[in-house]
Known about the structure:
- By secondary structure, the protein is an alpha+beta fold.
- 23% of the residues lie in helices and 13% in strands.
- The protein has helices at 2-5, 20-26, 29-35; strands spanning 13-17, 38-42.
- It has a two-stranded parallel ribbon with strand order 1-2.
Amino acid sequence: MKSVFQPEGLVLSISISGYKEVIDKAYDVPAISRTADFINVMTFDYHGHWDKKTGHLAPLFQGPIAFDPNPTFNAVCH
């Protein structure tokens, strides 16, 4: 697709899950990055009605460990 898009001045972008566990199992990021012009990481829906406490839907940083023990549920996790 990129070879068809490029001559037309178009870019190829994709969106992937923001959950590290899903990224590790579901995507070949090195292969995708060779093809896509950029990758959008969907950093939302980390918390919702399924939690027992209220949390930020799309946190930039990790919340207090007592509430948010998963260090990857934020936009800047490493």
